[in-house]
Write the structure tokens for this entry.
Amino acid sequence: MALISREDVAHVARLARLDVGEDELDRFAEQLGAVLEQAADVAALDTAGVPPTAHPFPLVNVLREDVPGASLDRDEVLAMAPAAEDGRFRVPRILGEAP
Amino acid sequence: MGAVEIARDVRAGARTARDVVEEHLAAIADREDELHAFNLVLADEARAAADDVDRRVAAGDDPGPLAGVPVALKDNLCTRGIPTTCSSRILEGWRPPYDATVVTRLREAGAVIVGKTNLDEFAMGSSTENSAFGPTRNPHDPTRVPGGSSGGSAAAVAAGFASLALGSDTGGSIRQPAALCGVVGVKPTYGLVSRYGLVAFASSLDQVGPLASTVADAALALEVLAGHDPADSTSIPRPAPSLVAGLDGGVEGLRVGILRELTDGIDADVAARLAEAAAALEAAGAKVDEASLPTVSLGLSAYYLIATAEASSNLARYDGVRYGLRVDGDDITAMYGSTRAAGFGPEVKRRIMLGTYALSAGYYDAYYGQAQRVRTLIIRDFEAAYAAYDLLLAPTSPSTAFALGAKTADPLAMYRVDVCTIPSNLAGHPAVSVPYGSGKDGMPVGVQLLAPALGEATMLRAAAVLERSAR
């Protein structure tokens, strides 16, 4: 039985904000299924009582002094944006109907 | 000529940095069209930087420990005002507004940056065939891959285009191409080298490191790169280690374990070179026997769940809003979907999908959570091993360089290429690949030394012994 269906792939693609074509649904289902089959050794392991590791070394928050310092130049940053206006990033409509 | 010799001669005024850079630019002009190691060659900028080094020497100043050394940068390291593409259409034409810390450190040490090297898109791959701008070819045989993802950097050093190169290593992306191209590659301890300005793939695994022709060159480069950076919150708050001074100390009395689980299923040629390397360490006074780390065999699966999960989160930033490609849509959600569909290549999409799945409701604990617990088990296995051994020895890659196209149709076959290098990334430990002879096909073989966290000095000392014995 396939580990992941076309419908699963379509759902994941929506979560990932990635448009996926009809032909890609089958290909991804097959390829992701193969990787998940390989990962069965990890998924099936008895790990009761083993804590997860998110990071190789124990980390604590690193804070700096709350004093003003240099930051990126706004114009230099916005010059690289696909669209900018009035010192801000410009994006398509987010809410509501088009005017 | 090696970086150590170049820097020594340039600092002493015995050669000019300009002459050195011209030699390397001539090598690039000669073979770059065939090999495609670079996404961008910075010839004019390199000449200007070299002239500046020469002016400082003439004025009696010391330009630094890498004076006049030509360095190539993997094109996922940010360079202010200079295109940084990650070999992806989604960042084509983007010029970062800041330099990566490692780039600043190289410049302050007197290095001359000659170009930005090709990689698998966003460092996702093991052959440099996933680049949106076409593959890099192996200088030893252009019908074969250079390895990846830092294939352009490895090829640049092997072809004499640069004396040193920087790569990034998330699951072997410095060490595996170093092995396949016959150069030295170091993945430092996680946190030893700043990641500020390295475009993120999997943040808990990524580490910047050097590729070089010799162990001494790699040690010199790592001394310059290492050390605390306040701009990277995961940077280890300690002074950089001394690596060059003790490099000739030998391995007398060191305990070395051959990592048994990583020798299963490797090519006979690679196994033969590994046995010779073990014998050489023993002849130099090390105590060598076999070490077993049973959970290391689970590393491949754990890695491809953790790395893709982190990648799916990190690559969410490529949404057509702040930089790079935008493909318009009726509303912002449509714009996100069409931008990402047009901008990412097939392997990056596959990994974003896999990582999103592994993190999604209903599967998070079975896949991502389990992989994180396996990561703990692997770290415990390493800790137990390092109670008995100073270093571990393993192959870098199960085979020598394969033909272009040989594995592109089967993602899982390509993933398996990383099996020997992944465990060090999961543990956050350092490892080095050292060239050790060649296979029956005449292609370079690399052997790998693994060390516990911050064990670089001992690791590179043993690497220098292997290097001398391989000659």
